[in-house]
Design brief:
The chain has three domains: 54 residues, Molybdopterin biosynthesis moea protein, domain 2, CATH 3.90.105.10; 105 residues, Pyrimidine nucleoside phosphorylase-like, C-terminal domain (Aldehyde Oxidoreductase, domain 3, Alpha-Beta Complex); 148 residues, MoaB/Mog-like domain (Molybdenum Cofactor Biosythetic Enzyme, Chain A, 3-Layer(aba) Sandwich), CATH 3.40.980. Helices cover 28% and strands 27% of the residues. The chain contains eleven helices and 19 strands. A six-stranded mixed sheet has the order 15-14-16-19-18-17, with helices on both faces. Strands 6-7-11-9 form a four-stranded antiparallel sheet. The protein has a three-stranded antiparallel sheet with strand order 10-8-13. The longest helix has 13 residues.
Length: 341
């Protein structure tokens, strides 16, 4: 590789994108790789501070930065990933469908230890919509030795996939709404409509909703009835606090379900419960799910809908990032709430 003055570059082919930055206005390539430099380009290049250009022939053993980016992106990607054509040496990864992003954090770190390789993602474990940018990769030099590229690809293979988006499975949801005040008609149920929309947004449908009082046996019967009717996901609302009238956690236990956790290091969502009854997930949802745009529901339910079986340690991991900052204008999911590292 050598450098030549811009004035001597007329007729040569650019081997890299040339970027122009206008502070406060624009940043992007003004000339693309492969552009043939003409006399009219010389003053433009000089105006953006390019007095010299790189010129090289890709000899055996070297890979151009664009090809490196594509190879890295493909080697690291599992299901549910779209990869953009390289721009300024970087390939961008986006979600090919709605789903839960999973990043092999250990593998990602190993990949970034390969000399001159850079690969960045958003946080793992979160629900992402189709088209969202979830990662990007590029190498530092303009061309990279073939043996380093091979090393990076071997790291990807050893930790495959490093990044993937797992689709949600459409669940048939049964809702049990507890509380004497709702059961007797003293107040109108506000939880059901919210849950119907939340599950619909995730591609699932509500099979039935049963209203019960605060009696444990009624809640147990309702849960089992919904499963018999075909529900493969149960959401129980109300009665999740430690008040003497709140019997929902006791009722879920009384079904014989395997309890994963009662309590989560998330605010909002501390009084959350997760259990499994014959493989059917049961979530006990605290009242905050009704009032907050983002809560424990949004952190846990999408993952459950991919078929992932969560353990207590998975819930405890939300402690680092599980504090909602109650921003005046909610930007979730583009914030730190519930992001795990």
């Amino acid at each position: 590789m050598k450098t030549i003055p811009v004035e001597q570059a007329i007729g040569t082919m650019l081997c890299q994108d040339i970027t122009r930055i206008v502070p406060g206005q624009d940043k992007g390539p003004i000339f693309r790789r492969g552009h043939i430099v003409g006399p009219e380009d010389v003053p433009v290049l000089l105006d953006i501070g390019k007095a010299h250009l790189y010129v090289f022939d890709l000899q055996d053993g070297y890979v151009h930065e664009d090809d490196c980016a594509l190879r890295l992106a493909h080697a690291a990607s599992g299901m549910g990933i779209n990869i953009s054509p390289p721009s300024e040496g970087k390939a961008t990864l986006t979600a090919a469908h709605d789903g839960v992003l999973r990043v092999n954090v250990e593998g990602l770190l190993a990949l970034n230890t390969v000399i001159d390789v850079t690969f960045a993602t958003i946080h793992t474990g979160q629900f992402v919509k189709k088209g969202r940018v979830i990662g990007g990769t590029r190498v530092i030099p303009l061309a990279m030795p073939q043996d380093l590229m091979h090393e990076a690809e071997q790291v990807c293979k050893a930790h495959a996939p490093i990044i993937a988006v797992y689709p949600l499975q459409a669940a048939t949801v049964g809702i049990v709404t507890t509380g004497s005040e709702v059961f007797t008609g003293r107040i109108k149920d506000g939880f059901g409509p919210i849950l119907r929309k939340k599950f619909a947004d995730l591609g699932s449908k509500v099979l039935n909703q049963i209203l019960v009082s605060d009696q444990i046996d009624m809640t147990v019967d309702a849960i089992k009835t919904l499963i018999q009717q075909g529900a493969d996901f149960i959401a129980v609302t109300g009665g999740m606090s430690v008040d003497p009238d709140d019997q929902t956690p006791a009722a879920i236990r009384a079904t014989g379900a395997d309890i994963v956790t009662y309590g989560a290091p998330t605010y909002p969502g501390a009084m959350f419960m997760l259990a499994y009854l014959d493989g059917v997930p049961i979530v006990g949802l605290p009242g905050c799910v009704m009032y907050y745009k983002a809560s424990i529901f949004d952190l846990v339910v999408p993952r459950l809908l991919t078929g992932e079986r969560l353990e207590r340690k998975d819930i405890l991991a939300f402690g680092h990032g599980g504090l909602c900052e109650n921003c005046p204008s909610c930007h979730y999911p583009a914030c730190g709430f519930g992001k795990i590292s």
